[in-house]
Design goal:
single chain, alpha+beta, four-stranded antiparallel β-sheet, 7 helices, 6 strands, about 35% helix, globular
Length: about 160
């Protein structure tokens, strides 16, 4: 879905100061109400599908970065996965993780350092099953997280 279309839908739901970053659903916005099903319903009406959506408060984003174990690593090879109620499957993690990959779960945030990239990573290809089937998850590399964080700080 085009981010311009998503921006319009969010405006129609009453949200303000909407800013998007790249075509992967990174949206920063302000609202007097807690975001939720109104956005999901608007997307479903307009585009015909019901997206899984994760909303993060500024404090949650800052906390994820502040406590990230790989924040000093290269931004394109370190990734942050935000999850809803992950149930880590250690057996699958060990099966799919390459020797070079390091990972850590802290609360609802899964951190991954993949120095050889994620394009061929078996762990990334199977990340949802490793975090528990049915777990809603979205991941971004640190470069993207830092861009979104800049947007939040400047909003």
């Amino acid at each position: 879905m085009p981010m311009k279309g998503l921006t319009g839908l969010m405006e129609s739901c009453g949200y303000q100061n909407i800013k998007t970053y790249i075509q992967s659903g990174n949206v920063v916005f302000y609202g007097v109400k807690e975001p939720g099903l109104d956005i999901v319903s608007a997307v479903e009406r307009e585009y015909g599908f019901k997206p899984d959506v994760l909303f993060l408060q500024k404090s949650e984003l800052l906390d994820a970065i502040e406590h990230g174990p790989f924040n000093s690593e290269e931004g394109k090879t370190s990734h942050v996965y935000f999850c809803k109620k992950p149930k880590l499957d250690q057996k699958k993690l060990k099966k799919y993780a390459a020797e070079s990959e390091r990972y850590h779960l802290s609360g609802n945030v899964f951190y991954l350092h993949a120095p050889n990239g994620i394009g061929r990573s078996k762990l990334v290809a199977n990340i949802e099953s490793c975090l528990g089937l049915g777990t809603i998850v979205t991941g971004r590399n640190l470069n993207t997280i830092y861009k979104v964080l800049d947007m939040v700080r400047n909003a």
